[in-house]
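As a warm-up, study this chain.
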Amino acid sequence: MHSTSAAGSSGRRVLAGLGALAVALSAGIAIAAPAQAAATEVDDVTLRWAMSEEAGGGAYFGGCNFLVAGAAGNAGSSRVWTEADGFYQTEVGNVAIEKPTADGGWAQPTWSTKCQNASGAAVGTGARSTTGNQVVLSAGTGTVDTEAGTAEISWDGDYTVVFYGGLTYWTVSDPTLTVAADGTGTLTGTGSGWGASMEDPTLWEELTPAVIELATFTGLSVDADGFTATPEYLGVEVDPGGGVSPQVRTGANWGSFPQSYVTFQYATGQSSYWYSSGGAADPKKPAAPVSVAWTVDDEGEPGEPGDGDVPIEVIVPEPSEPEPGVFSWTIQGSGAVNLGTATANASGFAANGNLHSIAIEDTREGGQQFSISGVAGAFSSGSNTFAGGALGWTPALTGELAGVQPGAPVAAGNPGLGSTQTLVSASAGHALGTVTVDAQLALLAPANTPAGAYTSTLTLTALG
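Now compare it with the structure written out below.
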């Protein structure tokens, strides 16, 4: 497991006066362009999500838990479904259900295969035993702004989440994804269905539809193709409400789906299956990665070729005297930062390394304030991901300049480097000269992370 987090060129970056420079650290350095592009309309956006391993896991009664295309009808009571009910569907409108196959592909399950894994064996209640079934929402429409890092996508369709073979089930309708410029995102939908209780099998009532948060994200990076990211779960606290199992906040897998999601589940009878309750199923409850795919064509409409007329504007300012001195920073080294092979411990998979050193020079008159900060994107290996917040750092300085100080240590976890953190800063009037900043990197990947070589991008931004 290694982080593609640093340092491409050792070339010098010079800023005269106030400005910002974003450097994406992967195999090389990329400087963020200051262009301001308008949001682009997109269509045929696809979302794929298994929700959790438990949403495809074996059940102690009723065979298994599974996903269904469309809004399932009224079973009339809390009971196990039969094929004759006609509730089980794998494609309705823009919604399909797929599960992995033995050859590494995907196929729509059938009534007889819905409780089988990719090898054709029946799933059980043990950890990691899951069908891997996922909902596939297509024909999503909305807007994407790759420069601003924002997106707003909506889907028209329904899917149903069934537990214990039909004893409890509910429906998600018309999901909407919103991604903000700070990298946070929210997937919402309208929940509806039937109220049930494992303690009272006679309970069966239609629920009032409610808009709920299905998943929340941090550290999202919006590009021309979409993204794959793991929703927040690990370390998320929730109030389960009275009359249900309390949340257990110990162990490597403790956490929760969003509060409004769990609150809605009070009535469905599924609430404790969406947060850590201390049971044997806890390792299967963390949220599965969400993949969203779109195509942003920089020339013309989405998916259409075109010459693309690009207007260019320039403002010529009044002449001004150049500011004496310069502020510059230089990354010492090239290539990715390799964190080596992670070691399993009680909390997950741990790895350590060092960020390439950054030499800073500030000779501007008056010692103007400056800062360098960083944020990590999600780690990915194929379709498997975990949040950038799994990375933390401990900054330190080599050399001293009065008024210049390293950023505070940031522990791996929530939020970790999944949100913007300060690497080094200087107050106004600081001493002039040079100083070098280093950072020890610490990674703690979730305990349920599949094996693989994971990469991420750490973006450094200088303001000065």
